[in-house]
Amino acid sequence: MFFDRPDAGERALLVHCEFQSKRQMSRAAKVGAHSGDELAANGKPIPLSCPAEFVDLASSAGVEPIELVTTRLKVPSSKFFIGSGKVAEIHALVKQHDIEVVLFNHALSPSQERNLESELCCKVLDRTGLILDIFAQRARSHAGKLQVELAQLEHISTRLVRGWTHLERQKGGIGLRGPGESQLETDRRLLRVRIKWITGRLLKVNAQRQQGRRSRKRAEIPTVALVGYTNAGKSTLFNRMAGADVYVADQLFATLDPTLRSIDLPQFGKVVLADTVGFVRHLPHKLVAAFKATLEEAAEADLLIHVIDASAEDVDDNIRAVKEVLIEIGAGDLPVLEVMNKIDLIPGSQPRVDQAVGSNDAPRRVSLSAYRGDGVDNLMAALAQSLGGDFWRGTVVLEPSQGQLRAQLYAAGAVTEERISPTGQHQLELYYPKGDLARLMAAGNTRLPG
To answer: What is the chain's mean pLDDT, rounded?
Structure first.
């Protein structure tokens, strides 16, 4: 956009490095190295050191992984990140297979990217650039596109120097004197102007969303946010719960823009359900900052539904990654109801509700299949129980003259059964949050039994 770089295409070579010890890994982290997990994909054996997520990220970006190169390092090289011998090996593979882009599963410095592109004669992207490219493809709303552009510009701003080393501030001779500002300085100034404009627009978007949240709080309507690792099934579950038609795909970061819907919970009432962007390991800080307005839907929710892909091999790592991002956005202390999704992919698994340790009432985890709809009713009931706190279950007897209170109890969804006594009294079986039910009864000049 602002500077010359090799053109990228669809044929990609993947590079993953593994560090040999925790001490060496901590040193490597300072220059952007990440550890990996195991996988096998694309019909060819892949070394155990390559993470499955990296291949999924590449595929989600629309590229075709042609070759995979793995290596072990003690510490990354300041020039190429990897050793010069491995660079020569990659260069040969690039020529042999006509590779158009080389993807690193690590964060590279601007100088490392520049040096690698110079040696390999093709486009080089690190993990952050790859995720930014995916986000750029997925953004649909105006606000989402602005957030992605802001993250891209902030990422590009540290890499402008690479493209204009051939330009000088001014040259001698008639007709060759420069305008007093180099191309690099011009581009930096244009970047600052654009970043300032986008930031201002996003502040307006954030103000509008905050106004909506304030209105919901004034109306005492709780907000529940779906959070979780990317491709855990949040949007599928959202559609099941809200009867919505949010875009769903078996790909990473299918959802970028938050979607809000109002739903009615049994024995509770109306709540606002929010579908949010998925998290990923080592989510770039630029994205966290750019998507602050989006992530605030989760940070300011009354309850979080942590959707977990129960069929994933690295489920524990995914849970930890989500918790780290929640802490980073200021949502680490919010109440959480875990949902183990995709049990239809686990033989023998059945929908169930697990209670919190030391409590007979509070739900801690719900197992379900959002794709088939099995166990979603259990989630709705558990959600009502989590939001409502202590529930009151019992019988209330109302006189015929208390028809208005009876109607209010029905409107709130508190009545599970009704009988008429021989004397004409209404015997109502109630199940409802105790505090809310007490307020309803008090408004009708009636007390709860006991």
So the answer is: 78
